[in-house]
Design a protein that fits this description.
Length: about 350
């Protein structure tokens, strides 16, 4: 299975220019609202038409502007799971799933519908109508309908966005299980960084209609390359830099000098570090044998059920609540060990974890 996409589409606020290929894996599309993620999926499905370019699936041309080829959606062997499911309200669950099954005998259609209902654990719901189902059940029916036609490509456009947290977690597990036995390719659009990371093997990061990064998910998180990709993949700490030498910079917004493992080049304008990768020294004194250890004062904190976000100022005590340099995320067990320490604390910005970024 292989999908090759190389398309351009003129849009009111930007031009979509996307080029990538996917082969035997789940690809996550990340980006801010309006970056072109959903439009890319709609072009692949045939719901929207690019201005120019090509889309090729398993050596079968779905779209080619130069040759005048533009297969209708029904002939593309593409399954699409919309953000709001788009189930037909006047059809039962079984009829919704069977809707796209053309050319099969009645018996074969019934067998395919039962297989899909079993796959999404809704076997006893075939005679119900969409309004009789919960949001999570509707989402599972929509997934079953998308897979019933045995598509070569499955397109998932933020399938969990309308669900509450508990249902999102449950259905994410269901989706991962379902995709493990799916033989085709999957493209998964999500605003949720951690969700995309759990579901997908590869990532494609879009920024204002352009591909900002593509490749293995861990490589993109570890070395995002650009400031935009670092921000889109959840990096909360970044600073402008002044070059000192090949492995030393001054972080202008953090007011400190940092040593780096990666060589600094003239194209680098910023440095970053992820909030969960900042660590604290276990001693109350600055360690003499570790680079990038600085005294820090707690400005304020915020919490979730499991984690604390600590806002820190380096070098001196803060003037007000907006006077901080870094955000650090720790589990609450770690916070319990930290919170009663006298200030300043000592933070370590590990040179291995620092990301050199260009515009």
């Amino acid at each position: 299975m292989k999908l090759i996409v190389d398309i351009q589409k003129h849009l009111p606020h930007y031009n979509l220019e996307v080029s990538f290929s996917i082969e035997g894996e789940t690809l996550g599309l990340l980006g801010s609202s309006g970056s072109g993620k959903s439009m890319t999926l709609r072009c692949i499905a045939g719901i929207e038409t690019p201005t120019s370019g090509t889309i090729v699936l398993n050596n079968r041309i779905l779209y080619d502007s130069h040759r005048g080829i533009n297969l209708p959606s029904r002939d593309r062997k593409v399954g699409f799971l919309f953000q709001h499911y788009a189930l037909f309200p006047h059809l039962t669950v079984a009829q919704n799933i069977a809707y796209g099954l053309k050319g099969l005998s009645k018996h074969a259609t019934q067998r395919r519908v039962i297989e899909q209902l079993e796959q999404v654990q809704l076997l006893e719901f075939g005679d119900r109508y969409p309004h009789q189902l919960s949001g999570g059940q509707q989402q599972r029916v929509a997934l079953a309908r998308a897979l019933a036609t045995e598509p070569d490509v499955l397109l998932l456009d933020e399938p969990f966005s309308a669900l509450d947290t508990h249902l999102r977690n449950e259905l994410e597990k269901q989706l991962i299980k379902t995709l493990s036995s799916y033989q085709g390719l999957t493209l998964f659009v999500s605003h949720n960084l951690e969700e995309a990371y759990r579901v997908c093997q590869k990532l494609l990061v879009l920024d204002q209609g352009k591909v900002a990064a593509a490749g293995d998910k861990q490589a993109i998180f570890d070395r995002p390359g650009t400031l935009a990709v670092a921000q889109l993949t959840g990096c909360k700490n970044y600073s402008r830099i002044q070059h000192i030498n090949h492995h030393t910079v001054r972080a202008l917004d953090w007011n400190c000098i940092l040593h780096t493992v990666d060589p600094v080049s003239p194209v680098h304008t910023h440095i970053g570090i992820r909030a969960h990768q900042i660590t604290f020294s276990d001693t109350l004194n600055q360690s003499s044998d570790q680079p990038n250890v600085f005294p820090a004062w707690v400005v304020w904190t915020s919490e979730t059920p499991h984690r604390m976000t600590i806002y820190l100022k380096l070098g001196e005590s803060p003037m007000n609540l907006d006077d901080y340099h870094l955000q650090v995320e720790v589990f609450k067990e770690k916070w319990e060990r930290l919170k009663d320490r006298p200030l300043p604390w000592y933070v370590h910005l590990n040179p291995d974890r620092l990301m050199l970024l260009h515009p």
